[in-house]
Design goal:
The protein is of the alpha+beta class. It has 11 helices and 16 strands. The strands form 3 sheets. The protein has a 7-stranded mixed β-sheet, with helices on both faces. Strands 3-10-8-7-6 form a 5-stranded mixed β-sheet, sandwiched between helices. A 4-stranded mixed β-sheet has the order 1-2-4-5, sandwiched between helices.
């Protein structure tokens, strides 16, 4: 079961003017499951994206990277079940064939289509099933299709992930809605995740690109479930310009700050939902690193703790074997770290326990206090490196027996 996470109700998700979504069952890998999603983007919209850094990036990612810089994107198509990764030239041909089929159905050019796939790697994409399913997806297009789309992009997710919010910008109400998928193969530099956020703000392409990169960095690039970086990660932000605000062109304006805050907020909530739904997760863990000489070294320490199987299994067992945290900090890669200045706390919303200081166990620490905190479903590990003023936050989850079961059985 996901940690303090439930599927939002359809009434909680707001339509974004200029975006329509349609979902259908195309039997791409399994029968009787929603596995093909079509997103129509209104003419004149701006689209930005960031993608996996895995050198074995999937065919649809390669096509997206080619199509996106040309601008004027009018449609997105997402299939689940088969990732179309590790499929060579044949995979590229099928990703392009998908774009051509969408273009034909929508009356647009193929380079105005962004394709996305998620699922099993190293298997050929049944593109004929996608093509056959497109008429059904198109027939289902509607502005309030976010709830169905959130379900249509799921793989091993146990709940659909979707968020909406509104913000006032330039005297106009701007609506944002986003969906994401992911539960395993999650590591920074994008996880095996797909994330799509749309808003109706008018914003320049330069600033949309900037806010997309920053939102990804502060959200999807700050989570880890198992330390594996997928081949298919993609995060897309759409701005349709239908809200009626004056176009945002100034990066230091109040309007840009408001848009940035809203996009980052939606992205963080979607990213945290992925961790809360980590395969077999029973604990949601916030790794808060402060006192760093740079943000990058704070992130190194956060990732070292968040990736550690020994730390994650200890949290699953509610076992205050907290020396594992110190070991992870020590191998994080800060060569001149003074462990004598380090302090570590373990906490919940109700209490915080000092665990380590002065290079070892805190004099005030009692194991029963650590055990009490570790029984909570949501736990914060706070580390003060004692080196400066920089900070960073990473979100992760524990490792349970079910993680092994899910991944051992994934292809069946």
């Amino acid at each position: 079961m996901p940690v303090n996470l439930s599927t939002p109700q359809p009434s909680e998700l707001k339509a974004v003017p200029g975006v329509r979504l349609g979902v259908t069952e195309a039997a791409i890998r399994k029968l009787n499951r929603r596995d093909l999603t079509l997103i129509e983007v209104a003419e004149g919209s701006r689209v930005s994206g960031v993608f996996t850094q895995n050198r074995f990036c999937a065919a649809p990612v390669q096509v997206c990277k080619k199509h996106l810089p040309a601008g004027d994107i009018r449609a997105l198509v997402i299939n689940t079940g088969v990732a179309n990764a590790g499929t060579g030239e044949e995979g590229l041909a099928k990703a392009n064939a998908t774009c051509e089929a969408v273009a034909g159905a929508m009356g647009i050019r193929s380079n105005q289509v962004l394709p996305f796939s998620t699922g099993v790697i190293l298997e050929p994409l049944p593109v004929e099933r996608i093509i056959a399913g497109l008429p059904g997806a198109k027939a289902n297009l509607r502005e309030d299709g976010w709830f169905e789309a959130a379900h249509g992009i799921m793989t091993t997710d146990t709940v659909a992930k979707a968020v909406s919010r509104t913000v006032e910008i330039g005297g106009k109400t701007v609506t944002l809605t986003g969906i994401s998928k992911g539960a395993g193969m999650i590591k920074p530099n994008m996880a095996t995740m797909l994330g799509f956020v749309a808003c109706d703000a008018a914003v320049s392409q330069v600033l949309l690109d900037a806010v997309t990169r920053e939102a990804a960095d502060l959200s999807f690039n700050s989570i880890t479930v198992d330390g594996d970086t997928s081949t298919n990660d993609s995060f897309i932000v759409i701005a349709t310009g239908r809200a009626g605000n004056a176009e945002i062109v100034d990066p230091i304006s109040a309007e840009y700050r408001a848009l940035r805050e809203a996009v980052v907020d939606v992205s963080i909530r979607l990213a945290q939902a992925i961790v809360r739904d980590g395969e077999g997760a029973t604990k949601f863990m916030t790794i808060a690193i402060e006192g760093g000489a740079s943000r990058e070294e704070c992130r190194k320490v956060g990732y070292a703790i968040g990736h550690s199987p020994l730390v994650k299994t200890a949290f699953f067992a509610s076992d205050p074997n907290l020396g594992r945290i110190l070991a992870a900090i020590g191998y994080a890669g800060i060569d001149d770290l003074d462990v004598g200045r380090l302090r570590v706390w373990l906490g919940t919303a109700d209490e915080e326990v000092l665990v380590a200081e002065n290079g070892g166990r805190a004099a005030s620490y009692r194991e029963e206090a650590g055990a009490r905190v570790m029984k909570a479903a949501e736990i914060t590990v706070r580390v003060d490196l004692g080196r400066g003023q920089e900070r960073a936050t990473i979100w992760t989850c524990d490792f349970s027996y079910d993680y092994v079961k899910i991944n051992a059985d994934y292809r069946s």
